[in-house]
Structures are given as C-alpha cells and as structure tokens.
Design a protein that fits this description.
This protein is 44% helix and 19% strand. It is of the alpha/beta class.
Amino acid sequence: MGILLHTMATPELDPLAAIGFAAGLGFNGIELVCQEGYRCGVPPDIALDAAEALGRAARQRAVPIAVLSAYEKRIAVPEEEIRAAAVERLCNAIDIAAALGASSLRILAGEETADVDWQQAIERLVGSMRTLGQRAAARSVSLLIENHMDTMATSAARTVAICEAIDRADVGILFDPANLATLGAEDFTSSFHLQRRWIHHVHVKDAVVIDGSRRSVVVGTGNDPWPELIQAMQTGGYTGDYSIEYERRWFSDLPNSEVALPQAKKFIERQLSSRA
C-alpha cells in the first residue's frame, strides 16, 4: 500500500522533474499520464528505450511509475476499423507501461452508450478487452477500468457489469468515487461495497458543492467523506495504492502543488494510520 503522485497535479513540470518532486515529498510512486501534448506525461509514440530510461530514473529515486494512464477509448464503437486501431494503440500503451516498469494501465471503458445500445456495445468492449488482456498478460501488466464520465463505466453497477462480462483476473477497477459523485451515481461507501471484489487502485480527490455543482479543492479540505471511506476500505480488505489526482491540469486556479500535495499526502497518511 502506498500513496502516489498523479502527474495531473504537476502540469508545469516534465516527467523527470515530477519524479524528483515526488521523491522530495516522500511519495511511494507515480501515476503517469500517457497523452500527446501534455507536458507532464509521455506521448503515445514514446520510444520504448526512452520509456525504459524514464522508468529506471523513477526507480532510482524510489518513486517507481506504478500506473500509466491512457486516454484512448474508442474500443467499443461499431466501426470495426476504428475499434481495431484503438485496440492497437492501447496494445502499444501496454508495451510502454511494461517498459516503464508500471504494473498497471488505466483504461477508459469505451465511449458513453445509450441504454438501448448497451448490450451490443458491451459485447464489442469485451472483445476488445480480451485482446488487450492477452497482450497485458504477456507483459505482466494489469488493466484498470476507471469509473469515468463519458465512458461506459459511469456508475459502480455498470463498471461491475463490465468486469463480470470480461471475466479476467487481470482486469480490475480503478475506483474513483469523486467521479461517481460528479456523475450523480452511487455514494462513496456504497460504490466501494458494490465494486470491492474488483478494486485494484484508487484515485483520491476532493470537492465542495457550490450551487449544486462540485468544485475541486485540496484533498482533505472538502466535503468528500474520505475518512469514512478509507475506514470502510481498510475493513473491507483493500491493500492497494491511493493516487492523489489533484487536477491542476484542468483547474489552474487551484493552490500550487508545492503547497497542496504535502497537505493532501499528510491527510491520507493520517487516515491510513488511524485505521491501521
């Protein structure tokens, strides 16, 4: 169990600088963005030897890259050619994850689908995920389906249904209760209990509600019930990592990471130690 720095929090830095920053703050590892055009991430076409070098640099600083976060999600579209190309891009992301030394790849579970099209879409998604699972198994990388807006995993119940349909031990859930709250889906504790069997990784972020809308804040200063959730997770046997997904990439008005991340890390450490 560890606390990771998500490079969403450090848009001003490049990955090497983020590694140094995380090491200086005593984080246990990194969750790294994989997307074209983002400074604190790696592009989807990074050379594998460059990925290997970055992974070595992270391990040398004792903050290994634990999770690679990919953004391709067209793996359930009806168009076979588009779907096949998306799967190939994610196969390449699996190779990058392995080169970095990451044990997991974040997956966005297809594009959001109307209820009437759900069954056909999930059949296409399952086919894609089984192909990806074979590639991931060969590289010793697990696949994590995140609870995420604009995908097929917009509730805990739907994310569980996806995992049940895929039926692979190396495909699990990246639990993001804040995303589920934003979507108006299950509450923090209920969503954990629904998904508990499949949860391999957790995103931590916090918010306050203003005029009915959630607004991101520094972890530990908002209204999200992390103390209660962490207690439930500890009691429920969760032993994986907690990644602080402080979304300065999207919300530049948030306090600087130099201030916010140490505060957020101490907050999570207090919750974990008090539940030990």
